[in-house]
What we know:
Blueprint (H helix, E strand, L loop, with lengths): L1 H11 L7 E4 L2 H11 L4 E4 L14 H9 L3 E3 L20 E3 L12 E3 L5 E5 L7 H18 L4 H31 L3 E6 L3 H7 L3 E6 L8 H8 L5 E5 L14 E4 L13 H14 L6
Parallel strand pairs: 1-2, 1-3, 3-4, 7-8, 7-9, 9-10
Antiparallel strand pairs: 5-6
Amino acid sequence: MRSLAFTLALLAATPISAQTVTATIPLLAGLVSDITRGVSAAESLLPANGEAHQFSLTPSQIKTVSEAPVVFAVGNNMEPWLLGVEPLLAPDVLLKLGELDSVAALTLKARSFSGTTSPFFDPHQWMDPDIMAVWAQVIAARLQAISPESAAQIDENLAALRADIITIKAQLQALAQQFVSRDISIVVSHDAYQYLERSLGLVQAGMLTDINDNAAGARSLSELSRLQGDICFIVDPNETPPKGILPQATRASIDPLGIAYLGQENYTLSFFGGIITALETCLPSE
C-alpha cells in the first residue's frame, strides 16, 4: 500500500499533458476531451462495444485505474464494475460526478412501470445539458489542480464548452415548442432519456424496458398500442425492440452513450446535435 501511495503522489505531480485522462464511459471521455483539448487525451475504460452496466475491467485497466491521479465516473450504480477496485484507490481519486452535492437538486429517481419512482437514482444525468455544465466545471477544476500549468488552456476550453451548452439549450427549447404545439407523444425503448425529457419539458407516454431492463407487461403494452396521434419512438441503437411494436410511430435513434461522436473536436455539441437531429425526424412534414 505504501508503494501505491508513493506512485499516486508521483503521478499527481505529473502534468496531465504527459498523461491520458481516464473516464469510465465513452460519454464522459468525450466531455473530458472537450476540456482537455490541446492539453491531453481522454480515454474510456468501457470500450465502444461494451455494456455499461455489465462489464469487467481487464488487468491492464485495473493497473491504469490504480495509478491514475483521477478517474471520472458517473456513480449512482452506473458502473458497478468499479466496486472491486475502489478499495485500491487513494482518497478522492475516483470522482463520481453524478453524486456531487452540486447536482443533487437536479437528480431524478429511477422510474418503474407502476408509475412510481424507485428508491435509487437514475444515473443518465448527462442527458441534461445543465448537469453537463456543472460536471464540466468540476472536471476542469480537478484537472487544473493536478496540472496548474495547463490552467489557462483548460479555462479557454471550458468557456467554449459553456457557449456550446447555451446553444444546445436554445435548440432544445425550440424543438420542445414544436413537440408541444403538435402534441407529439414520446415512447422510449429503454428508460435512459428521463433527463432529456425534462430538458424538453415533455412527459413520456411509455417505455418498453425500465432502467433495470425489466420488460413492459401486457397492461403497459396494451396502453401503448392504444396511443393516438403522432408518436416519437426513441430507440437505443444498441438494442432491438420487439417487432410489431408501435408500427405507426416515427423512430428516433439516440445512443445515450454517444459513442459515434468520440474523436470529434466538440464532443458535447456533436452529441446533443445528434440528439436534436434524431428528434427532428419525428416532426411531421409541413
